[in-house]
Amino acid sequence: MPSQSLWSDPPIGSVRVRPVHSQSHQSTVYGWSPPYNLRLPIVCSKDISTIWGDLKEWLYTYVMTEWIESLVKHTETELELLGLDQTKLGPLIIGFMKDLHGTLGNQPTAMKSILKTVGHLIDQKPVAPITEKDFVNDKCVRCSYIYKSGDGRYYNDRAVVFKKSYDDPSSQYMYQGQQRSKQEITLPYVLREEIVLIP
To answer: Fewer CB within a 10 Å sphere, N or C end of the chain?
Structure first.
């Protein structure tokens, strides 16, 4: 840190800075002295890191609050239009979203990923990787359509699902022809489905 008597010697017309110790603050205030003796105080001490930290925390909290409040307002409006606000489902959905936000913050992608995982659990699908320990008598105890063949290879009988559209709730599995649902897999294996559209 420069001493109180030190002055820089910049080119003509540039800024000159000199330290002035504040009596009321345990910090050093630097006088900003551009041409024409215009003088503005700039706080330059260890306190500025604290101030900056507080500012970042305030901005982070503000942005998080604004986002979740907007999300909750939108959700309440949509649930009201469906009449779900008069049921136990309305508060349950809003409470679940608030809890997700409280844990993950402003991360909509992560929140939707959690919802997708919940969907897999409801369908009783494995969400953790499948390993060799999950097989008994060449059958996967965590997923009935995954198995080990006689040649030592592993297969998923429903690796490919055939649908008429991505929003089609029905699923078709084919085991003849060029396109088949059965696919060889490698352990450890995370369960996934490839969607193929059919006419």
So the answer is: C
